[in-house]
Amino acid sequence: MNTSTASQAGQSFKTKKVPAEKNASKTTSTNLSANANNTVEKTINSAKAENKQSSTLPTNTVSKRNKAIDGLRALAIIGIVCFHMRPSLLMGGFLGVTLFLVLAGYFCTRSVLRYLNADENAKNAKNIEDNNKNTQGIRHYWEYLLKRVKRIWPPTLGIIAITAPIMWLFSPSLLPKLQADALSGSGFFSNIMYVARKLSYFEQSGLPSPIKHLWYLGLLMQAFVIWPIILAALIKFVRSKLIRMYITAGLAILSSILTFTFAYLFNNYTTPARVYYSLDTRASEFLMGAMLAMYGAWFAKHSFHAWLIHALHLLMGKKNISVSLASSVKLDSNADSSVDNSALTKKSDKAYANNEKVFAEDGIPADLREGLQIDLSDNSVAPDIQELPNNAFNKPKTVFYNPLHAWQRSCIGLLATIVLCCCFVYAEGTSSVFVFGGYTITAAACTLILWSCTQTDNICSRIFAWAPLAYIGRRSFAIYLVHFPVLELFNPANRTTAVSTGEQVLQALVIVVLAECLYQLFEKPIQDQQLFKLIRSVSLTLCCIIIVSLIILPVNWQ
């Protein structure tokens, strides 16, 4: 009787307890899912708010800029302006374009990865179908391109429209050249036109066009159109982040090989127009910055040399060594940071330790131990079981690598800066060195400087964050647009008198003043100033009218 009542009581207890446990598990699971959905929705809303804020406040706001990177822009534009001076003050100043390409690849890749992460978060939160996801990805791609066009196109139209009347008044012989390049310059394909004309960048034949320097904007916009598609395909079809970087590095190497091939086919190991102006031969410089952005987004919490050793182990097929990537220095707000995997690592290590405790000798139940064919008392193995090596079930060896110290990062950045400055002074554009990977090596030095400037605790970033350099860097795009027409106006190709140092200083001051006007008119962020918005809209409309008239109407400069 006692046993029957006890069993009935136990059954009644089980029947009462199980539904309660089920209800509790259901409520907890629903609460967890609701909390997860709420957190994901909050992150999406915050990302949307951040994107909206970034759209209303362009990237050149002072609060969100890295002054050291602005200093890098200043170094690039100073080299370019000094190269175009007559006589040239820096023979290798044209390599400032390489530094600009590295910066463009870095920020372009960061923006694309941010868009792709937003799409992935939206899919995980709302269970979006693949068709809707593809539609959303295409929409984000066009939004990305529209932002780049809004950033680059108005100042470009402005400089073409302003140059036309000035050349008509002071240097009418350059007006036909301006008319010939107005359409390609405003449409971002002047580099393709120069390749078709076989017009070398370093060999002047006749009067140069006052907007010849717009070839770089054509190259840049073409990279902005093509690279996001390639990067999205890599992320979709390649799961390993490290292999994505390998593929990107392979594309950079392929670009260097194309540079050598076309130089050999066209102009006997020099730098012809096909090599200098084309996207496929200059892509290695852009991809260097792209790889740095990938490293910042996917491996930023890891030590640089630990990541490199891990990559070498993967290439050599050594899978029995797991490299512990130690936490590196904290990047500033401008640098991307990857997901913090420290919590996941701690959880996995804890789970591994728990598993070891469960399968230890003292934790195995007696009935299960009797069913085993291994006598744990004397470590003897049954005859029908093959003897395994002693380290068969050992945990893989973990090798720890510490991050680079601040003085090491400073030395790397300063050494790369010295190499780049030496190239500015001694390099020649017609040298065969650049055909044999010279542009790629220079881009690697620029990438190391950029990597050093994304971290705030080293000497290199402090040097480039100097206020005058940061000021010039914020106006670097306007200076680039203004400097070449001004120098062509003051120093025409048919000038026979020498240019004094005082004249060069005066020309530099004129460039800075005109660049400041162009920056204030077309580039400076506008928040709530309706009058200034109206002035900018009217100015842009007038520029379009002048450019269309210049393209359509015949020009008689005589």
Describe the 3D structure.
Strand 2 (374-375) and strand 3 (380-381) form a beta hairpin. The chain is built from 20 helices and 4 strands. It is mainly alpha-helical. It has a two-stranded parallel ribbon. The radius of gyration is 31 Å and the shape is globular. The model is unreliable at 5-29, 46-63, 319-385 and 395-401 (pLDDT under 50). It starts with a helix and ends in a 6-residue tail after the last helix. It has helices at residues 2-56, 67-84, 96-126, 130-170, 175-186, 190-197, 215-237, 241-267, 273-277, 279-298, 304-316, 342-358, 366-371, 406-426, 434-453, 459-464, 467-474, 476-490, 501-523, 530-552, and strands spanning 321-325, 374-375, 380-381, 397-401. It has 2 domains: 65-77 and 84-337 and 399-501, no CATH class; 342-398, no CATH class.
Chart the SSEs and their pairings:
Layout: H1 2-56, H2 67-84, H3 96-126, H4 130-170, H5 175-186, H6 190-197, H7 215-237, H8 241-267, H9 273-277, H10 279-298, H11 304-316, E1 321-325, H12 342-358, H13 366-371, E2 374-375, E3 380-381, E4 397-401, H14 406-426, H15 434-453, H16 459-464, H17 467-474, H18 476-490, H19 501-523, H20 530-552
Parallel strand pairs: 1-4
Antiparallel strand pairs: 2-3
Helix pairs in contact: 1-3, 2-3, 2-17, 2-18, 3-4, 3-7, 3-10, 3-15, 4-5, 4-7, 4-18, 4-19, 4-20, 6-7, 8-10, 8-15, 10-15, 14-15, 18-19
